Amino acid sequence: MAHITIYTQDDCPPCTFIKNYLAEHQINFEERHISNHNYRNEMINYDAFSTPFIVLDGEPMYQVDLDKINQKFGIKS
Predict the structure, then answer these.
(1) In this predicted structure, which of 1-5, 7-11, 46-50 has the lowest mean pLDDT?
(2) Given CB 3.0 to 4.6 Å as the disulfide criterion, which of 1, 8, 24, 47 pairs with 15?
């Protein structure tokens, strides 16, 4: 099964959207809230400066790409 990590922050509607979308499709994900300095630094090391920042199977996703997520997890849209 694919592994997905989402870097998030408070008051981020796209963060809420993608977390809810994955939860609706029973997809487990790891959330890393960037209030944690280590997680913020990890995100910056990817040259990512906005949330949600997604790492899907080790591949950074700088914008939410539902087609790629759907394909990876076998979600029929």
Answers:
(1) 1-5
(2) 8
- Per-residue pLDDT band for 61 (boundaries 50, 70, 90) equals very high
Q: What is the arrangement of strands in the sheet containing 53-56, beginning at the earlier edge strand?
A: 30-33, 4-8, 53-56, 59-61
**Cα separation of 10 and 14, whole Å?**
11
d(CA 59, CA 49) in angstroms, rounded, equals: 16
Structure tokens at 53: 């920042």
Residues above pLDDT 70, as percent of the chain: 99
- The two tokens of residue 13 are 């509607």
Partnered with residue 54 across adjacent β-strands are 6, 61
